[in-house]
Amino acid sequence: MSDNSKNDYKISSLPQLPNGWVWVRLGEIVESIKGKKPKNLGDKNEFLKFPYINIEAFEFKRFNQFTDGKDCPTCEPYDILIVWDGARCGLVGRGVKGVIGSTLAKLDCADINKPFLFYFLQTKYEYINKHPRGVGIPHVEPNLFWNIPIPLPSLAEQHRIVAKIEELFTKLDAGVEALKKAKEQIKRYRQAVLKYAFEGKLTEEWRVKATQVRANQVRAIHELPLP
After folding, report:
1. How far apart are CA 103 and CA 89, in angstroms?
2. To bridge 32 with a disulfide, which of 77, 105, 160, 174 should be the other Cys (CB 3.0-4.6 Å)?
């Protein structure tokens, strides 16, 4: 899609969906609540006890700033956050309990399963990130974002889709963990091979056979008839 037409999704031109599904634009079903920088911000103490979710806390769950939570939008672990400003604009993640940072926004949706929306937006990160607004500091382009079409099944089917995604992701995670263990086992095996090599254990059987061959040769010589 060219830059000139990137905001011009035409619902009628989109692929046909399964029965019961419909195309809708994000702006029809989703609202955003932009974060803000609190007046009181610093190290955690008895007054500043609410985590401030800046980009570091959002991406790595490292909380190094806290606030009193006054006049600031908050989020919960079940909420969806999106990076609205900065190089990572368009990146979505699960919320954490705290105060939403100024470069983030919370996405609210009434008639859609939140995990369904979360997984869908993960597929749109590259598209959103490559078409930002602004030159110095990039921002999510609102016209582009709110006009993104989303294929929407019934709420019951959304739940089933999310359950299947998470089931498959769990299997993938288990596979990754198994590969890590196998890689570690191979690493230990390689080290054991090298250790045995320089302890003479790899050629121990060969030495035993060679010794036996020499013994047989000596025995054969001694058993030769004298002239």
Report:
1. 9
2. 105
